[in-house]
TrEMBL record:
It comes from the Bacteria. This is Sialate O-acetylesterase. GO terms for molecular function: hydrolase activity. It holds the Pfam family SASA. Residues 3-221 form the Sialate O-acetylesterase domain. Keywords: Hydrolase. PANTHER family: 9-O-ACETYL-N-ACETYLNEURAMINIC ACID DEACETYLASE-RELATED, ESTERASE, PUTATIVE (DUF303)-RELATED. InterPro entries: Carb_Esterase_6 (IPR052940), SASA (IPR005181), SGNH_hydro_sf (IPR036514). The lineage of its organism: Bacteria, Bacillati, Bacillota, Clostridia, Eubacteriales.
C-alpha cells in the first residue's frame, strides 16, 4: 500500500534548489502521483514552473521509506501563490483535493498534509497578521473534503534569511502565526528552518537545506502521527 502525502504551498514546497551536483534520492519505494498514476519519483517532482528543481519532499520520503514502506507524494504546490489563492472553491484548492482523491483511488492511503507557504503573505502586515485564521479555515475544509480530519498537518517556518529581503518585512509575523496554528492544536506540527540557507536569491532554500528540511518534516510527521495513533501501512 502506498502511503500518500499531499504537498501544498508555494515555491519552497515545490522546490527551487539547484539539481546540478546534487545527490539524487531516487528509490523504487518513493513514488509521485503524476498524469493520473503512481510512478517512481524523480526530481523535479513538481511541474508548477519550468524552473522547478530540487525540493524537500524527496528527503522526506526517503526518511520514511527506510522503515520498509512505500511513500508517495502528491505534488500540488504552486510557486508565487498567496494563501488567499488557496481558498475552497479556487483553482489551487480544488486541484489539490482532486489530485489527492485520484491518488487514493489509484491505490494509496492519505497519511498527511505538508505545507510550506508564506513568503507571498510576508509583504503586507494585514496578510501576515491574519495568516493563522485564514490557514485554519482553508485546511479545515481540505481535511473535511478528503476525510482527513484526523491526519497530521506539518507546516514549515519561513527561512531566516528573509531578514535580508526587502520584500518580506513581515516574515517574522508569518512565522509567529505559523506557530500559533499549531499551538495547542492536536494534529498540527511546525518544522524549524533554523540554520537553513538560501540559494543566493534571499528567497528560496538551497538544495542542502531542502534535504535537511525534508528530514525535519519527516521527523515532525512521525511525532505528530504517534500522538494521533497513526502509522504507515
Amino acid at each position: 500500500m502506498i502511503n500518500a502525502f499531499l504537498l501544498i504551498g508555494q515555491s519552497n514546497m515545490a522546490g527551487r534548489g539547484y539539481l546540478q551536483g546534487a545527490s539524487l534520492l531516487d528509490h523504487p519505494d518513493i513514488l509521485m502521483f503524476r498524469d493520473g498514476k503512481w510512478q517512481q519519483a524523480h526530481e523535479p517532482v513538481h511541474q508548477d514552473r519550468s524552473f522547478a528543481e530540487a525540493g524537500l519532499c524527496m528527503s522526506f520520503a526517503d526518511t520514511l521509506r527506510q522503515d520498509g514502506r512505500q511513500i508517495g507524494v502528491v505534488p500540488c504546490a504552486m510557486g508565487g501563490s498567496a494563501l488567499d489563492e488557496w481558498k475552497p472553491g479556487d483553482e489551487l484548492f480544488e486541484n489539490a483535493c482532486r489530485q489527492a482523491e485520484q491518488a487514493v483511488q489509484a491505490g494509496a492511503v492519505l497519511k498527511g498534509f505538508l505545507w510550506h507557504q508564506g513568503e507571498a503573505d510576508s509583504e503586507v502586515l494585514e496578510t501576515a497578521e491574519t495568516y493563522c485564521e485564514r490557514f485554519l479555515a482553508m485546511i479545515s475544509e481540505m481535511r473535511r473534503r478528503l476525510h482527513g480530519e484526523g491526519l497530521p498537518v506539518v507546516l514549515g517556518e519561513l527561512g531566516e534569511y528573509l531578514e535580508n529581503r526587502e520584500g518580506s518585512p513581515y516574515w517574522k509575523e508569518v512565522n509567529a502565526q505559523i506557530h500559533q496554528i499549531a499551538d495547542g492544536r492536536r494534529g498540527f506540527a511546525v518544522v524549524s528552518s533554523e540554520g537553513l540557507k538560501d540559494r543566493g536569491d534571499i528567497l528560496h532554500f538551497d538544495t542542502p537545506s531542502l534535504r535537511i528540511f525534508g528530514v525535519r518534516y519527516a521527523q515532525a510527521w512521525k511525532e505528530c502521527a504517534a500522538q494521533l495513533g497513526i502509522s504507515l501501512e
